[in-house]
Amino acid sequence: MKLLGFLVFLVLGVLSLRGVRWAYFTFVVLSLLYFPASAGFRLAPRPCELTFGLQLATHSLTNYAHIVLFALFFLMTRAQLRMSVPRAIAWAAAATLTMGMLVELAQGVTGGGHCRLRDLIPDAAGIVLGSIVVLVRNRISARPQPR
Predict the structure, then answer these.
(1) Angle between helices 21-38 and 2-17 (to 10 degrees)
(2) What is the CB neighbour count within 10 angstroms for residue 73?
């Protein structure tokens, strides 16, 4: 069953990266339902960890899964936006950070996972990574092709 779920998310992610809007919205909805579904839709609220510090922030940057997943989410969101690059990057960053907050809240409400405010640090690193990918790709595609 987990393999099927992974394949569904993979297909939706690839379609979202290609700009297919229904796939993007389906991906977002299913992503937000993941934690409640994995908890059997039973609520078991736990308080969120709100502690910060340089050592915790540095440790959070070792959460490579968050960095990569949120970089991909940023790229998927950017692919949906039909506007100038700076505006699209700003909107994609805001949407990605919002998604990160919603994931943390879902973890806190369901008791599945750890609701930690510091998990937004690797999410923000994912935004930076995704922005770099967009800017490099735009720079490469803007170069004149040799004949």
Answers:
(1) 150
(2) 26
C-alpha span between 71 and 88 (Å, rounded): 14
The values of phi and psi at residue 75, to 5°, are: -65, -40
Residue reference for tokens 């973890």: 107
**Helices 85-110 and 21-38: angle between axes, nearest 10 degrees:** 20
Bridge partners of 49, per DSSP, are 116
User: Residues 21-26: contacts with CB within 8 Å, 24+ apart?
Assistant: 21/80, 24/76, 24/77, 24/79, 24/80
Query: Which of the two residues, 12 and 51, has the higher pLDDT score?
Result: 12
Name the pTM for this structure: 0.88
Q: What's the burial of 100, exposed, middle or buried (CB within 10 Å: 0-12/13-18/19+)? A: buried
Phi, psi of 104 (to 5 degrees): -65, -40
Angle between helices 64-80 and 85-110 (to 10 degrees): 130
Q: Give the tens place of pLDDT for each residue, 79-101.
A: 999 888 889 999 999 999 999 99
